[in-house]
Write a structure and sequence with these properties.
The protein is α/β, with parallel strands linked by helices. The protein is 43% helix and 15% strand. The chain has eight helices and seven strands; from the N terminus they run βαβαβαβαβαβαααβ. One of its GO terms (molecular function) is L-xylulose reductase (NADPH) activity.
């Protein structure tokens, strides 16, 4: 399980859900892991579960503070931009506050953290791999997901642009685009059994994704086994986007 021995990894939104599971998996596989979240209590429980993980309590909405926090831990060879914000509302009820917060976390913070990590790697002439956690909502419109889906669509283009510009410098960038994953965040939009059943009926495999299934895809894209994969988005959606 030492696939990432000697490498330093940063996972944002690591306090819960996909981010937490990814941080634990990377630590298990030998990486020196840094877990970033705005919720200190979540980070402390993660540290209790895996004492080798280094925790960074910072709010990604603060451009300067988060940038300075990441500069202090470079170099980072493996970056997982997992942190996200979701607020579900019909298009006609979407607020400017929701739009700003969603794009600040889901897009702007990804650019910010990735600039710090990638810029440092380039300066040191080191190779690296970045994975952005996107969503099927970035590929297909979903009811009441206008702002969230738009932010993930922007993240998909950011991923491709990063792959194009950073690839020649030895840094690969890819994304994973899951369907609904069984996390606390998913309950925001999918706690209604009728609504959930409607989505599940459109997934050929007939279920939502497990956290571990997304983590496995992230690990693959971080690893040397995917060395020729760059600027792409890997759906983890049970076939939803194939229909």
């Amino acid at each position: 399980m030492g696939k990432f021995s000697g490498r330093r990894a940063l996972v944002t939104g690591a306090g819960s859900g996909i981010g937490r599971a990814t941080a634990l998996k990377l630590a298990e596989m030998g990486a020196e892991v840094f877990a970033l979240s705005k919720t200190l209590a979540n980070l402390e429980s993660l540290k209790q579960e895996c004492p080798s993980i280094n925790i960074i309590p910072v709010n990604l909405e603060n451009w300067t503070e988060s940038r300075e926090a990441v500069k202090k831990i470079t170099p980072i060879h493996l970056l997982v931009n997992n942190a996200a914000y979701a607020e579900i509302a019909p298009f006609l009820e979407a607020s400017p506050e929701c739009f700003d917060k969603t794009f600040n976390v889901n897009v702007k913070a990804v650019m910010n953290i990735s600039q710090v990590v990638a810029g440092d790697l380039v300066a040191r002439q080191l190779r690296g791999s970045i994975v952005n956690v996107s969503s099927q909502a970035g590929h297909r419109a979903l009811q009441d997901h206008t702002v969230y889906g738009s932010s993930k669509s922007a993240l998909e283009m950011l991923t491709r642009s990063m792959g194009l510009e950073l690839g020649p410098k030895g840094i690969r960038t890819n994304a994973v685009a899951p369907t609904v994953v069984k996390t606390p965040m998913a309950l925001v939009g999918w706690s209604d059994p009728v609504k959930a059943a409607g989505m599940i009926s459109k997934i050929p495999q007939g279920r939502f994704a497990e956290v571990e299934e997304v983590v496995n895809a992230i690990v693959f894209l971080l690893s040397d086994e995917s060395d020729m994969v760059n600027g792409h988005s890997l759906p983890v959606d049970g076939g939803y986007l194939a229909a």
